[in-house]
Predict the 3D structure of the following.
Amino acid sequence: MKNFISKLKNNLVLKKIFYWGIVSFLFLYTFSIPAFSGRTGWYIISYFLMAAFAGCTFVYTFLYTHFKINRWLILPASFMLFAFLGTAFYSHAFVGTSGKIGWTTLLLMFLTLIIFYYAFVAIENKKIILIAIIAAFLVFAFYFAYVYRDKIIHLQLSSERIDIYFDNQNTIGFYFAIAYALSLYIGLFYDKKIELLFLIPAFIFFFLGFFTGSRAFLISVVVGSVVILFFKLRKHKIIFLVVFGCMIASFFILINIPQLAFLKDQFDRTIYTIFGIGNSKVDTSTVQRAVWPGYAFYLGGRNLIFGYGVNGFSIYSGVGTYAHNNFAEVLCDFGLIGLVLFNACLLIPFILSFKPKDKYLYLVSILFFVYFIRSFFGVVYYSKETYLVLALLFFLTKDCKLPEFKRAIKSEPTNNSYDEVSI
């Protein structure tokens, strides 16, 4: 048996097959997340691709890599544990088996994070990883464009947003926001001029994202663009201000195009609802996003340790849906400890990226800020693309150490000399 395994390890052809198998299934599974996950019947394809992806990753890791556990992965693992505890303690309050099903789904997402992480470790080449992810979302973008071809060709977003063919419109919009940020990052931060071509898929993701009618998409895109441009042009402040001004002008031009009137109407109703400015109608979606998070924080405060379990806000509040704010939802569902653990999954990689050693650590900050803003507009803890991004963050920072914040203190003079002491 040992000789057989040894032969497999020394078989370079087999190694290449499994290596490119991981890359291929990374592409296919990433494509399947927005394309099939939210559709009845089609999700089976996503599960099959996940199993194949996991199988290739496991075999390659076992045969050709030195397995190492990233200590920071204990954060999402601990979050899963507290999700289970809260759900188990309050399962009697859930209708049927929704609590168990919800926690099982969350467990599968955690396993997805682990698969993604060790697939990234196996591939190792960061550029190949990013290109595979962008290519997967680009193929989905073409699929999306085909399904909504009539609306897109005629720019028909004047009175209503697209229907839910794939998944919730805000979720699809955020897939495009992430793909936009990754494409813009490669286009601007890589050295070869040919890589400027990645600005083309960035534009495609930006354009198609409009048709989701998602305000969260637009805000996430703006935040991602500002952070990317800050890192790229931080030494050229005037150029940064000029580009930033052009972005703002372009934004107002786009939302005032008659064919995209639905977006402008959404923003008008939001401003009127919050500030009472203008002649628009009250936006019920904005009211919900203002009221439900507060209700979720209130419920979370009443059960501060473990929360009410998966979907706890939906059940205990009586509103039948999520709180439209990830901070409030996680506090309500999993308590204060769950809130700290989940947000630490984003915050720790961000802290590890301080004093960047290479250009890839800029991407960690970009994704952190995009997700931080996103958390105010929706619930991300059970979104599959969240665990893809978390795996990417942990991978990019796997060799980083927490920065040591030191300060130098000068001691009192002795014999007309000064000794510098570092604490």
Notes: The beta strands are 408-410, 420-422.
